[in-house]
Structure formats: C-alpha cells, structure tokens
Amino acid sequence: MIMQPASTEIASRTAAIVQELKGLEGPLLPILHGIQEEFGHVPQDALPVIAEALNISKAEVHGVVTFYHDYRSHPAGRHVLKLCQAEACQSMGSDVVAAKLKQLLGIGFHETARDGSVTLEPVYCLGLCACAPSAMLDGEVIGRLDDEKLDEIVAEVRS
Amino acid sequence: MIPRIYVPGDSGALALGAEKVAIAIEKELADRGIEAKIVRNGSRGAYFLEPMVEVATEKGRVAYGPVQPSEVKSLFDSGFLTGGHHNRWLGAPDKIPFLARQTRLTFARCGVINPLSLDHYKAHGGLKGLQNAVAMAPAEIVKQVTESGLRGRGGAGFPTGIKWKTVLDTTADKKYIVCNADEGDSATFADRMIMEGDPFVLIEGMAIGGIATGATKGFVYIRSEYPHAVAMMQKAVEAARKAGLLGLNVLGSPNAFDMEIRVGAGAYVCGEETSLLNSLEGKRGVVRAKPPLPAIQGLFGKPTVINNVISLASVPVIMDKGAAFYKDFGMGRSRGTIPIQIAGNVRYGGLFEAAFGMTLGEIVDDIGGGTATGRPVKAVQVGGPLGAYFPRSLFDTPFDYEAFAAKDGLIGHAGITVFDDSADMLKQARFAMEFCAIESCGKCTPCRIGSTRGVETIDKIARGIEPERQIELVTDLCNTMKFGSLCALGGFTPYPVMSAINHFRDDFKPAPVAEAAE
C-alpha cells in the first residue's frame, strides 16, 4: 500500500519548494513540477500553501493544475508507461500496439495496475516519429515497438 | 592519437538502442585494453541508420549502421577503429545518399559535433554570427534578418525580421525573447534534434535576437515529453554562461542577455504562441486574442519576440554568411532551407534539410523511398495534426508556403506522415476532431464544442446514418471552426478533416452491409 504523507507534512514540504522557486518570473509551473516530483502527484493540501505564497486564489491554482495533462491528482504506479497515439505512430499500427499492451497489462489508458506496478497513458507525440510506433517508460524512450519489445516492457514493469 | 568513437545520444537513436551500443563499445574497449574516447554526438537525422556509430580515422569519419549491441564485438574484430570493412559499413557519413543530397545550413553541425563542446562548436563555424552581431547596430541586424527572407518555421510562416522590427521599435523597460520549443505536432522532431544535437546554435540565435531587439531575457519553453532535450539545453545554457556567451556582457560587448529553460506540462495548445505566453506566466494555457500582438504586449505585458526553435537556430548562419547567401536558396516567397521531417510509415525516415521547392512526390517517393511496409502510399499528412492529407494526385505540389496554401494545405512545421493503403481516412478525420476535443483550451466555442460534435457526426457516417447529410453537416461545422476560432487548433482542425473527406471520399461511404448468416 502506498502511504500518503500527512497534510501538515505536505504543507511543510510544499512551502520549502515554493520558497526555493517563487523568485522566478512566472513561478507557478516550475513550482507545480517541483511538487509533482516531490510527491509523485499534486496533493490537494499543497494548493492553499502555493496560493498564499504567490498571493493568488486557491481557485486560480486549481485552475492551472487541472488545465495541464501532466499534473496528477493521485500518485501513479511505480512505473509510468506512455504510449504514443499520434498520427505518425498510427501509420505504423499504434492502435494495435495499444490493444496488445492493454491486454498484457490488464489495464486501459489512464489506469494503474491493481498491484501498483504501472500506469498506462496515451501521449501525443514523443518526437520519435521516424521510428514509430514509440513509447516512453519512466523517461526512457523506446522506438519501433514490436511484440518482443512489448514483452520486455511488461517484464520490466512487473519485476 | 586516441581513437574517437561517436555514438549518438539523440532521443531517436536512444529509442533504437544507442545506449546499449555505447555500453557494449565501452565493455569491448575495456576487454581488449584499447584506449578510446566515446563522444555522444547528436543524430544526423538518418533514423533508418540509427544507431549510427562513427569513428574518426586518418581519412576522416567512417560510419557504421544500424548497429545492434550484439554486433559490436564483430565491429572490433573487423578493425572498425581504423575504418575496417563490416556489413554495417556505410563509409564517409556525408557521402551517404540521404545526407549527401541535403543542404545543411541550420543543421550543419547536428550529429557532427559534441553538443556540449563549445570548442567543437567554434571549430565548425559556430559563434561567427554572434561575433558579427555584437559589432552591429540593432537595426542593421534586423535588416539583415528581414532581407534573408526567413519566415517563422513554427508553421505560420510570418517574416521573422518584421516581428523583430516591431519589438525593436517598441520602447519598454524590459523586453523578452521566447523560444517556442513546444514541438507537439506529430511527425516533427527538428526542434528536438537541434536542442539535443547542437544546443549552442539556438542559444546563439537567441542572443542575436536579444541584441537586435533590446531584449535582455530569453526563455526556452520546452515540452515535457522531451526530457533529453530539456537536460541538454540546461547543460548548454550553463556552459554558455561560463564562457561569457550569456550574461551581462555577451562576448565582452555591452549587451546583456541571459536565458532560462522552462518545461511545459503536456498541453498541446501551448505550442500556440499566446497560450505559451500565458503558460510561462503561470496561468492556464488559454489562447489570447490578437491584437495586442505579442511583439507589443507579450510576456508579462512586455514586448516579446516569440519564435520557433528552427527560426532562431537559422539566424546564426544568416548573420555569419549574410542575408543574400541564405536568400539564394528556395523559391517564390519561401526563402532559405527547411528541415523536412519524413515520418510514419516510410522506408527512409528522418530529417532532410533542403531548399524550398522540392515536390511532395520527390520527398515521399524518392527521398523517403515509399512506405516501410512496402505497400502503396495512400496519403501523406503534411504539417502535423492540423495539416491536410494529400493524395498521390497532389504529389506535384512544391514544398513552398504559398503552393501548399493554394492546395488547401499547409507546410506547418514541415513534418510529413506517410500512410500506406491500409489507412482508413474516416478514422483519421475522426482522430483530428477527437484530438482537437482533447487539446482544446476551451476559449472558443467552435473549437471546444464543435470538435466533440464533429466526432459524433463522423461516427454517424461510419454507422451509415444518412452519410451525405452528415458530410454536409461536418463541412458546415468545419467552416464555423475555421472562421470562429482564435487560434490554429480550432481554425486548422478542418484541414485534415476536409482533405480526408474531399480526397478520399470512398472511405466515407457506408460499408456494404454484411448479409446475415443463415
């Protein structure tokens, strides 16, 4: 089970990140990236701390957090697998790859495996369009996906 | 001389196993007790040959590719450190037909040099543009960029020099240069390649832009899907600061210019310039109405140059070799070179920098070699998810901003996705609407709601419910989206949709109803 830090702890760790970054011009996105890196998601308890430090409303912070696809409201699995579903990958059968992967992992897009091993997400372009279909596993890029590579990915996220 | 081995650290090469190849080479060197230096260069862009390993020999560089980790041992056995023969032997990299046929101005160094070595950069002609610029008056620099005919390579094709002049002529206490590195279009990877393979050229271009317009601060907004490019740019900016390229006195001149790398958060619409500015300010990436132009009221309300990576990275060569040199390439009002990215279902995929004017057919059939699957080419999408699908009958269209516009298409960021005859164009039209629905910022109703209605209507066509009437409805909807949206997301989604309908009408006819089995 993933332990969630207590709200006071979230507040203090958030405050430290905000303190470090609030001198930047337009600091909100860098702060939110920092928080997601720290907690694996952007916890609700972090929002009032940010709002107060930047002198904006909590609603504004909420609006920004929910606008961007990257920010998570809940922690992801231990691995995050992003599968490209954009046109160049489509032309090389990314829909078939997606169907296979969903079956192998037993989850759909935007879902996390019940054992918390992996979260599967669609992504619209990784810039690997000349070696499609492509994916990114925990920041590592993989091109020309085939059955063999899919098996390797599944083995890695399950290990 | 210690042998030098080049193994690309470019994402595309890494995706094809370059890291494992580098590790295998290191191990082999250790096992054999050979001393050699491994340089992690960028990619030259011939992705069908990646991972492409190069060795510096007395007779120049020799390339091998595509190299699999399991082949490294046999490479050493064949004496590849001195250019020995092997079945992966490609010879001199600049003689490889795909590379030899290119005109490399912006990408001259990409894949050749160590991306983080300023010495390499300078040895290959880097910094000359900035050196010239610091000795010039801002208006002269702007004039040179204007005369070169350089137009925005992000997709809109707006003359870069005119944008710069507006910022130069606007007085303010602070001005900004923003580099749009939110390269979200499928089939495009030119920005990524330059940031990973020659980051100093972008820094140099931004510094020149700063001096030319009076901007003292630059931001590079890179999409979060490009972690390797982000890391490389951050290292390059630090190195540039240490070397006096950035700071209070750029190259010892009285001009101050510094820059920061910022990371996006997965919103496609932030590639639109005004959304990007909002995002940099820490707001939702919602599109702004124009006017006011960003050149007058941009980032934090200050005059801002916002240019694509390739536009900025093309400035150093213009300032080095002159406007006339650059302008000499190209056709009509499209001057200079354009890095065409050939992607998708294609045999020879990669980046091909060439002067404007090649026909689409030459690019797809001749350079790209047709499809990877070996089946006939059915359609090519030019310009990313907002670009039109072209059938073979339009393959004589020359690569030129105006020529593409005349065929109801666009060059965009010059990415080309090739599809074979198994492609279902109704599915592609539906995806264009679906993508617009996912990525719409929500500001304009035609884009926010029209895209969802578009998906539903195309689904009805697929189910054979009054298809002719639905096509009429989609056409009308596309018209509303085109003219009723502030930015290109809602405004250009009609391009892929309508081109699919107009050029591939057979795919929109109801499928023959299968007879029920007895």
Shape, per Cα inertia axes of chain B? globular
The number of E-state strands of chain A comes to 5
Contiguous helical run count of chain B: 22
CATH architecture of the largest domain in chain A: 3-Layer(aba) Sandwich
Question: What is the class of the largest domain in chain B in the CATH system?
Answer: Alpha Beta
Shape of chain A: elongated
N-to-C terminal Cα separation of chain A, in Å?
17 Å
Per CATH, the superfamily of the largest domain in chain A is Glutaredoxin
What does the oligomeric state look like here? heterodimer
The largest sheet of chain A has its strands arranged as 2-3-1-4-5
SS summary, helix count of chain A: 7
Number of domains of chain B: 4
The separation of the N and C termini of chain B measures 80 Å
InterPro entries (chain A): NADP_DH_HndA-like (IPR028431), NuoE-like (IPR002023), NuoE_N (IPR041921), Thioredoxin-like_sf (IPR036249)
Protein name (chain A): NAD-dependent formate dehydrogenase gamma subunit
Family (chain A): Belongs to the complex I 24 kDa subunit family.
Keywords (chain A): 2Fe-2S, Iron, Iron-sulfur, Metal-binding
Layout of helices and strands:
The complex is a heterodimer of chains A (159) and B (518).
Chain A lengths: L6 H15 L6 H12 L7 H8 L3 H10 L11 E6 L2 H4 L3 H12 L5 E2 L5 E6 L11 E3 L2 E3 L4 H12 L1
Parallel strand pairs in A: 1-3
Antiparallel strand pairs in A: 1-4, 2-3, 4-5
Helix pairs in contact in A: 1-2, 3-4, 6-7
Chain B lengths: L3 E3 L4 H5 L2 H15 L4 E3 L13 E5 L2 E5 L7 H6 L11 E3 L5 H4 L17 H6 L4 H7 L3 H11 L11 H10 L6 E6 L8 H8 L1 H15 L3 E6 L4 H16 L15 E6 L9 H8 L23 E5 H13 L1 H5 L2 E2 L2 E2 L1 E8 L5 E6 L4 H8 L9 E6 L6 E3 L9 H6 L8 E6 L4 H15 L5 H4 L1 H13 L4 H18 L3 H5 L1 H10 L15
Parallel strand pairs in B: 1-2, 6-7, 6-9, 7-8, 12-16
Antiparallel strand pairs in B: 1-3, 3-4, 4-5, 10-11, 12-13, 14-15, 14-16
Helix pairs in contact in B: 6-10, 6-13, 7-8, 7-10, 9-10, 9-11, 10-13, 17-19, 17-22, 19-20, 20-22
Pfam families (chain B): Complex1_51K, NADH_4Fe-4S
Cofactor (chain B): FMN
Protein name (chain B): NAD-dependent formate dehydrogenase beta subunit
